[in-house]
Amino acid sequence: MTLLIGALTVGLILSLLALGVYITFRIFNFPDITTEGSITLGASIAAVMLVNFHTSPAVATIAGMLGGMVAGAVTGVLHTKFRINGLLAGILVMTALYSVNLRIMGRSNVPLMDVKTLFSHNWFGTDTINVFGWDASAHDVTALLFSLGMALAVVGVLYLFFRTNLGTVMRATGDNDQMVKAQGSDVEWNTILGVSLANGLIALSGALLAQYQGFSDAQMGLGMVVWGLASVIIGEALTGSRSLGLALLGTVMGSILFRELVAIALRWGLNPNDLKLMTAIFVLSALVLPQIVRSLSRKGGRHA
Amino acid sequence: MLELHGIRKTFNAGTVNEVRALQGIDLSIEKGSFVVVLGTNGSGKSTLLNAVAGSFFVDEGTISLSGQNITNWKEHQRAKLIGRVFQSPFSGTAPHMSIAENFALAARRGKHRGLSWALSPKLMHGLRDRVATLRMGLENRLDNAMGSLSGGQRQALTLLMATWLEPQLLLLDEHTAALDPKSADQVIRLTEEVVSRDQLTTLMVTHSMQQAVNLGDRLIMMHRGQILHDLRGADKARLRVEDLLSRFEEIRRREQLDESAALMLSERYV
């Protein structure tokens, strides 16, 4: 039960990262690798503010998110104003962020012991509560409910935002930039804003993850782009829809489901060292399998 | 209204692929006139339109529209004054967004886009009636994705979008060239309707002589990046397809003459 609740909570926290990846990869058609640096940036800013400056957890979290937005804006400016290939712009910023994160933390790992975080609360007043007949730690359940609230709030805000005039033109920017220019909107600024927003969400996810797991680590961003993509792909398979609201919700569900799958696989004896290989193979097969199936069915049709 | 002075544009300058697309264009278009630009492939007619739209900056010359010098304005800044329909039906609309959302984008062409609701009741109210005027039954499909429509439907909607906010200048870039004849006729009829109703200043590029004869009150023939003929008023009204054919034949002959003359000269003297 503890394992399940823990996996659900991490899945919900990382769903914010998946939403950020959804914005760049799917809405803007921009393969943004900044993710791997900006999640750590959010975590390290939040951790250092909590440990060294004793700010409130909310302030530390927001500061982490703002850091991610700045990182994303840098990638966006490199790509649009300096005409650097999108992948390369992300890689440059991600690489630079590795050093920036070490500078911020002062070392490669900052533990969050004995500091109050967003996950220090217990909303129930008792140590254990009964969930569907199981005894669970009330503290863990609070963490789960809090992350669920965060994920739903972010989905709600994103849904509303992408249906405003500004949000609509940002979606159109990824869909047909020539049309957006003809409608008098600046494609470059829209892209910068979008990548910045996405990385803000990703850093927010990092800030929450650091507080939940109790430490920030320079390596924690490794493989996170593929992780986010896996969530997005599972989400699309679950909802199978291009409708905005369903796609956003699907991404959150994809993140949870993927985390659960990972927890189960680890439980069944998957070597944690193989986890990233497995994730990469999963995403690869999710991208390639539909093509293979299509070409097979086409061949089958020719014979018939 | 629209003033072009000494416009020159060379692509790939200094390379073997150098193309002198525009070679000194002077053109002045009065408010409310409907100008058709006709020319062969490579005559520079689309380049002229793109120069006005701001797809690139010109090498020399000035462009001014409604008394403002827009020579150094970027494409999206010029869109404040200019409505456009492209040759490809895919260029003017966002395929994965609904018809209504596409119009929400067009309804704020060149204006500030803030955090107010895109599909406002005010927009939706007028939208249904305006789309119904197309008589394509699309007013009941406003939530459908633009990408699910045919090329003709998309061009008709693009035209409606370009004129949703009355533009100072309407640019039509061979906007029926990619359509089947029936859809092309429909879009041309709609074009006449919209342009005459709102008295729009229009610059239309075409390679259809039939369209060039039937539409507009002024005809410009382009060849090799220059304006060859400029017909207006009674001359334009009297014009028939045969006249255009003979003018093109004239160009062809003159060019042949140039080449054969060059050949003759080189044979004799070199």
Report a brief summary of the structure.
The complex is a heterodimer of chains A (304) and B (270). With 304 residues, chain A is mainly alpha-helical. Chain A contains eleven helices and four strands; from the N terminus they run H-H-H-H-E-E-E-H-H-H-H-E-H-H-H.
Which structural traits does this protein have?
heterodimer; A: 304 residues; mainly alpha; two-stranded antiparallel ribbon; 74% helix; globular; B: 270 residues; alpha/beta; Rossmann fold; six-stranded mixed β-sheet; four-stranded antiparallel β-sheet; 9 helices; 10 strands
Write the SSE topology.
The complex is a heterodimer of chains A (about 300) and B (about 270).
Chain A: H1 2-27, H2 35-51, H3 57-80, H4 86-105, E1 109-111, E2 128-131, E3 134-137, H5 138-161, H6 165-175, H7 177-182, H8 187-213, E4 215-217, H9 224-239, H10 244-267, H11 275-303
Antiparallel strand pairs in A: 1-4, 2-3
Helix pairs in contact in A: 1-5, 1-8, 1-9, 1-10, 2-3, 2-4, 2-8, 3-4, 3-8, 5-10, 6-8, 9-10, 9-11
Chain B: E1 2-11, E2 19-29, E3 34-39, H1 45-53, E4 60-65, E5 68-69, H2 75-78, E6 82-85, H3 99-106, H4 121-132, H5 151-162, E7 169-173, H6 181-198, E8 202-206, H7 209-214, E9 218-223, E10 226-232, H8 233-238, H9 241-269
Parallel strand pairs in B: 3-8, 3-9, 6-7, 7-8
Antiparallel strand pairs in B: 1-2, 1-4, 4-5, 9-10
Helix pairs in contact in B: 5-6
